[in-house]
Structures are given as C-alpha cells and as structure tokens.
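User: Before I run my own analysis I want an independent prediction to cross-check against. Here's the chain; please return only the structure tokens and, at the end, one sentence I can use as a sanity check.
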Amino acid sequence: MKTDWILLVVFHMAGFIQIGRSQEECEVNILSADSEVFVPLGDFFLLNCSYTCPNAILKTRLTRSNPQNGTNWKSAQVLVDDFEQSNASCVYKLPEKLKDSAITLMAYVLPSHVTIDLQGELEEDKQHNITCIVHDVAPVRYLNISVTRGGEVIHSKAYKEDHRKGKVTVKETYEFTASRGDNLQMFTCQATLLLGSLPNTTVQSSSISVRTYALPEDPLIRMDKWIEFETSPLAECLVSNGFPTENVTLQMFINDELLDKYPGVPGNSQTRGIYKLSNSSYHLGLNNVTCISRLSELSRNNTMYINIYEAPELVIGLSNHIVGLNNSVTVDCNITNSNPADYCASISVNKEKKEESCGSSISYSITVSRREPKITVTCTVFLGQNPNISQTSTETIAVHYVPQFTEVLCPKDNILVEGHKTTFPCTVDGSPKPFLNCSSEVWSAPPDNFTVARNMSTGYLCVASNSRGRVRKHVHITVEYPPGTPTLIFSPDRTISNGELFNVTCQSDAWPAPEYRWNIPTEDHVTYSQGHSSITVNMASVSHSGTYTCQVTNRHGTSSRQQEVVIVGDNTWMLIVIGIVIALVVVAVVLLIWCLVKKRNGRRGFYNLLTRNRSKKLENGLNHEHTSQNTTKV
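Assistant: Structure tokens:
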C-alpha cells in the first residue's frame, strides 16, 4: 500500500503540471505498469486516475471502497472477488471528444499443491509415465506444467487454449524411455502461472529419486554340443548388460541339478560362470545344461542340449596283403564299441566309398582288374547321429603283375638334343618294380642325368623283368643339334669376269637339316637351288660385287658366314696389259739413264785438268780441287 500511495503522489504532481493546459489538450491516465493486472482472488486493488481534464471519472464493474479525490486525481480500492475479466478506466467525455485510459483486472489462485506420480524403479529401454497433478489453480490458460530431471527441464506444456473459469485441477502425463542416465536422478513436477511481471508464481511437487535397472540379456552358453565320455569339458555361462551388476546372480544347472552360483561384480558389464564337468555330472546320451540369470525377482534363462558319446572303435582285416591281377581280396570293417547300434561303418577303396551300413560290422570283396601297384583300403566307423565324430583305419594291398612297355612310357622313336642333360627316354610299368636295361651294339644305356652327344643316335634294345615275367622292346634315339659355322664354296674359284656364270654353295652340319637364307648384293640373274643351299649367278656384272652372306637355321639355333666377291669388267685386262707395258718402259728408261750416268762418271775420273805450271798450286790445294771436281760430277 505504501507503494500505491507514492504512485498516487506522483500522479498528483503530474496533475498540477497539467493545470495550465487548455481543455482541448487534457489527458487522463490510470497508474499501472501493465495493461493486464493480476490480483489474488478476494484482494483489493488500488485504482489511481490522474488527469488534466475537468470532471474525469473512474469506471469499473467491481465494488469500490475508500474513494478519494484530489487536484487532478482520483483513487479507489476495488475488490477482485470473481474470475471474470474486469475493465477499469479513467474517462473524460465531451460531446465531440472522448479521452480514456483503461486496464484489465483478473483474479488468480496459485495451486494449492502439486503432486508427482513416478515409480521408484525403472527398467531401462522401457516406456514409463510421469504424472503431474496441479490442484486448484486459476486461471488455467496461464498455467505451464514442466517436468525436471536433476534440475533440467525435460518436458513442458502450456494450457493457452484452455478457457475454463474458476479453480481447476490439471493432470499432465509425460511418457519417456528410461536410460541408465536416469539412475539416482531427482524428478520433480512444477506448475507456473505466467502472470506477466508478477513474481513467485511457481509451485513444485516433492522430488522422487529413481533407480534404473536393466534385465540381463538371455544367458549365452559356451560349450561343445558333442562331448566324448570320460572327459572333463568346460561349461561357460555369460550374461551381459545386467544393471546394477552387483544385483545380478548367475546359476548353472545340468540335468536340473545346480552346479554353482556366480554373483555379479560391480563395474563389470558381464557376469560369467565357468564349471568343469566330470563323469559324475553327466551320462551317456542327451544331457541339458541350463543357465539362469536373476535380477531381484526378475530372471532369464537359456538351455543347451549336449550329447555325451563313446568314441568309435574299430578293427580292419584283410584276407591277403598281396594279390595278383584278376584275383580277389576280402576287407572286414569291425565295430568294437559296446553298443554297435549307435554307430555306422563304411569301406572305401582308393578314396571311393564302396560299402556302408549302420548298426553292425561290414565286409567287402575287391577283385583286382587294373594295373596299379597298390590299393588303399579305408575303414571308417562314425557316430550315427554325428558323422563328424569318426575313427579311421587304413591298410594297403600290394598288386603284382608282369612288366609292360607302353608307347607313353617307352616311345619307339625318341629325339634328344645335343648338350642337354636328360634321362634315358624309356621306363616300364610293372609290380614289383621291374629291373630295366637298354643297350645297343655300341652303347649301353647311359646313367640318369647324362649329357646328350650326337654319336648316341642309334637303336637300343630295352629289357624289363620282375618276379612276374620278362618283356623287351626296340627303341631308336635320334640326336638333334644346331647348325655349325657354314662353309662357302665358289665355282669357279678364280677371278670372275663380267658376263661369266658362277655358283656359291653353302654347307653346314646340322640336324634336323637347316633352312638356308641369303643376303646378296642383287637378285638380278640369280637362281636358287632347291632348299636354297646354293645360288647361281647366270651373268655376272659389276653389280654382283659385294658381300655374300649365308645364314643357316634349325629349331636349335642359327649360324652364318660371309664372303666378299669382286666382278672384273670387259676392259679390265686391256688396262692391266697397258699398265704393265708402261711400267716396263718406265723401268727400262730408268735403267738406261742409270747406265749412262755411271759411264760418264767413269771417264771424268781418268783426266787431269790442271796445267803443269800450276802443279805446285795443285799440290797445295789438292783437297780443295778434289772437292770441286766431285761437285762438278754431281
């Protein structure tokens, strides 16, 4: 109320300020911070009107009390005692003009209390309901209900479209999926009246702390379904995702008898139980192993059926271990287990099943009709309900027969290559393994991995023998080798003149006979022999001069040889003769000149060209004059 009186004074001061204004500019105003004013049901609200207009009035349907007037202001207490929306206005009215200021007054009632309905234990991954009940609240269209988890709003709903009047009770249900994150969280319902700037309009319920749990998955049983009798297999049970783990208990049974219990360990996502079975735990035949996981009063279970069996036992027998061609032998496959009816037996010959029967031992007769050194006989005994559980025994029958040469093992004609390492190309079929010897008039059969030589080409007689008989066969070996370096033979072997006929023959040692290829200066007037081993130039010319190359090839190699050929033209001999004559004339002239010079030098040596009266001078300068004379001769 103190605040209201302060506001009233403020309005009065405003009224004094407006006194000097003209009537046409007057104003009216109701003191209120909001256009909508919410008042607790049954409370009074101070309605203040300030104005500069004369004779302004307060209008409202609500009951007024304690009216007061002042200069340019009016006030009154109005009682808000129902839930109808009420208008209050300050009005100045002239015939041609209306001025007013209005607010809306509404009564409200905060909820008397809020309740929450939620189970204290929630199963994870399941749908659960939270129910909030708001009692005796008005007006409901301003109500907002929210659900919080750990102080965080997880659901909220407003009732703006609900226009019911008076105090009502509202129920809101929220469905959610529980998760492990909800464990030990506080859940609360809150009811709030959204009344503008009015504070403290929220009422909340008490909080509920929940615990979540997760029922474990179906137990997983790990063990073999087929177990041999008088062994100690391990049986393992495993449950996952039970929460809280410490509340999980695992039990293991065999044939409905409890084997052991295994408690869950806090912090582990799995609970595991392992039990070692003994002979006293099970019996021959079908047994059941059951695992049960429990969480409080809840449980899940799984059952696995296991078969306890006696390992198959057998004895194999043969009427004979050695048999000749076209003779017979009997195979016996005997089941020696205490209860043969639970087992089956089969007989295979060289991995081909020939006989099979269940419940008793079996026999099979083999007639040998093929040339093969041995026959493998297999006896298999297996569990009738599970063929994978079996026992096998194998015996070998030796088959004896006379040696035999075949074209595949010992071909009549054979080709070997010189220089290659190989074995003699003849073997023999027979059992027991025959002794084999191959020889010729010159050669005995070489040892294994011999080096082939060309002089081994000849015929051989091969003889094979064993305890069943003796056979023989003639074979021939041809040794092939690559071409040697060819030889070129020219005919005629003298100088070839222009227009003459000449022949070139290429010879090379090779087997098989080689092919001949030529590389020559020109093909003009050239003919080839059959096989191209030689060529004939029918009319030689200078164009046939050059290099003649012969290449020989067979499937083992290639070799070649070349030779230069010069063809002499028609005037060559004349030029040669003229050249020789000129050369002889030149030699004769040189000899003649030489003889004349020798003759002349001899005559000058016999005459004294010095006078008598100069004899003394000659004696003094003898050496000098002698030199002069020699110089003159030259």
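Sanity check: The two ends are 171 Å apart (CA to CA).
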